[in-house]
Design a protein that fits this description.
This protein has 6 helices and 5 strands, in the order αβαβααβββαα. It is globular.
């Protein structure tokens, strides 16, 4: 798209989309088999509306990632026959505790977007035109671990001058760091130490 490289996709969902080239696709199952993977710690999916298809390609009997983050935006997926709740339900059926990181509706692609909230699923979106990320934990961190991890991440990003207008940090880009901080926080609590 001429509007933003961040809205390319396999299917058009924006008026600026035009065909550019064919691309090869694969499945998580094929990647797991080809690389003989025994474990996947963290799986991040952001494929502009095709996230549910990617999840359906996970070989759940072989690997179950500890944490999965995928994107949702119903205006991209309604024509594919599903909405964000279908993805959240699917992850729940796989045994995950799902959290919804909701963003305010996109006003314009290629611009900074504004984060709204993080909630446990099941829940409703604050705005039906909202979008965001589903964060699925095989073991849900306790609230204090989440607060601590998010707080530490926000402080770190402020020091790097990455937080614009003190908006909450975009969880997608920081999910791996956040998960490591949560895991560290939980582990240090077990050992009688705590991080601030």
């Amino acid at each position: 798209s001429q509007v933003s490289t961040g809205i390319s996709g396999l299917l058009p969902f924006h008026g600026s989309h035009e065909f550019s080239e064919d691309v090869e696709v694969t499945t998580i199952a094929d990647i797991v088999a080809a690389r003989s993977l025994q474990k996947v710690d963290f799986l991040k999916i952001d494929v502009e509306g095709m996230d549910f298809a990617v999840l359906r390609g996970v070989p759940w009997q072989s690997v179950k990632p500890d944490v999965i983050i995928c994107e949702f935006e119903d205006r991209k997926t309604r024509d594919l026959g599903h909405i964000w709740k279908d993805i959240a339900d699917y992850l729940s059926e796989q045994g995950y505790a799902v959290m919804v990181s909701e963003w305010y509706p996109i006003q314009e692609y290629g611009r900074v977007h504004e984060w709204r909230s993080l909630r446990d699923y099941p829940c409703e979106l604050a705005d039906n035109d909202g979008w965001g990320n589903l964060i699925a934990f095989s073991i849900r961190p306790d609230d204090e671990a989440l607060r601590s991890a998010l707080s530490a991440t926000i402080k770190c990003q402020k020091r790097r001058n990455r937080v614009r207008n003190l908006l909450p940090v975009r969880l997608v880009g920081l999910a791996a760091t956040t998960y490591r901080r949560i895991a560290f926080h939980v582990e240090t609590q077990k050992n009688g130490r705590s991080i601030k």
